Amino acid sequence: MRIYLPATIETLRQLLERGEVGSPPLRGYAVTPALREWYLDQDIEALEYAALLEAARTSLRLLDTDPKAARRRVVIAADVPDGQVLLRPHIERSAVELPEPVPHRLVASVHVDAAEAEEAVRAAAEAVVAAGLGDDDAQFVVDEAEGHELAWYATQEIGPLLELW
Q1: Coil, helix or strand at residue 79
Q2: Which of 150, 154, 128 is nearest to 49 (CA)?
Q3: CB under 8 Å to 65, separation ≥6 — which residues?
Q4: Would you say 75 and 5 are in contact if contact means Cβ atoms under 8 Å apart?
Q5: Prior bond to 25 cis, omega within 30?
Q6: What are the pLDDT digits (tens) for 9-36?
């Protein structure tokens, strides 16, 4: 199953240093039955993009809790055996949980904001909690950041990408 893990630039560093992502339980997002039921478009690419966006929003929450982190949303895409993925629809439609860290060999790609998104992401990280609580102005700020597309990087590009920070 393709899963999308919310992350930060520091998470990518840990992936290269440790050879794995996360400490269990690890929250991720995927195309789940609840997401398929909710989403009007049954195209798999559209569904995967919806799950990736949920992970990107959670990345904003990670940035909110780490003021030293680079102001870029990061999502790690990994292909994990279905039997290792626990569905968590009571949390969010596409939410999943992994009881084990994800080894580097299962990482398919990473998605990271470009430099021009940095200011919007900075503001969104500060507003994401209020947006989640229903603040329309804060939601507008988060939507601005979500208007920026995440850039795709192959796993062999993670090291060179990290050299930018």
Answers
A1: strand
A2: 150
A3: none
A4: yes
A5: yes
A6: 999 999 999 999 988 899 999 999 999 9
